[in-house]
Amino acid sequence: MTNGLIQPQLLLQICCAPDASVVFERLRSSYDITGYFYNPNIHPKEEYDLRAEETMRLAEKMMIPMEPAPYDPQNWFAMTKGKESEPESGERCRICIWMRLEKTAQFASENNFNLFTTTLSVSPHKNADLINELGAEVSEIYGVEFLQANFKKHDGYKRSLELCRLYNVYRQNYCGCLYSKENLEAETDENDLLALPFGL
After folding, report:
1. Residue 179 falls inside a structural domain
2. What predicted TM-score, i.e. pTM, was given to this entire model?
3. Which end of the chain is more exposed for a tag (fewer CB within 10 A), N or C?
4. Average pLDDT, stretch 22-51?
């Protein structure tokens, strides 16, 4: 609540703490945000746990409540079967984004949120137009408004780097799924991995 006004309740699908940082900062004055960390694509489990823990730690520091979500990689592997060799931003990524938005919209509908959105568009590696297109499709199915955005605009990614330094947030060097990790390792010299500009 700000200035005596009730803020719309927004369920925010969070892909990682770095991207969440700038979205928390930008939306908190206009929305009553609840974070939702649903990312069955992240592999291996140790990496998933690390990203989840960092997100929870950041949310606590920035005073954003979080709702737990299941880690169901088997479902993700089933949904993306046959798309293992797809390039980044190909059909596998489309399925992955849809899956996360669909689960977020379902939770938002079942728990009376006014809107839902995602932090995914902060990344320079993600297509905001595609994210917004899929968000709108899912919105129609569940009857919950999707907040369209491109959080990389106005130096969103740069600001996320600044906030990561401020809060000492872990930044991963690959998108999250097993296939993106394998592709990265195949194409990148081991000594350069930590220098890659991922905060996905």
Report:
1. yes
2. 0.90
3. N
4. 97
Asked if 117 contacts 149 with a C-beta cutoff of 8 angstroms, the reply is yes
C-alpha separations of 160 from 32, 76, 151, 191 in Å: 20, 27, 10, 24
Euclidean distance between CA atoms 79 and 59, whole angstroms? 29
User: Residues of 122-155 as b/e, b for ≥16 C-beta within 10 angstroms?
Assistant: bbebbbbebbbbbbeebbeebebbbbebebbeee
Residue 200 lies in a domain: no
Structural domains of the chain, count:
1
Average pLDDT of span 52-75: 96
Asked if residue 4 is part of any domain, the answer here is: no
pLDDT surpassing 90 at residue 142: yes
Pairing of strands 9-13, 32-36: parallel
pLDDT in tens, 64-111: 999 989 999 999 999 999 998 888 788 999 999 999 999 999 999 999
How far is C-alpha 132 from the chain's CA centre? Answer: 13
User: How many Å apart are CA 135 and CA 100, to the nearest integer?
Assistant: 10
Would you place residue 175 in the very low, low, confident or very high pLDDT band (cuts 50, 70, 90)?
confident
CATH number at residue 112: 3.40.50.620
- Does some domain include residue 154? yes
Q: Give CA separation, 40 vs 4, 51, 156, in Å.
A: 38, 12, 25
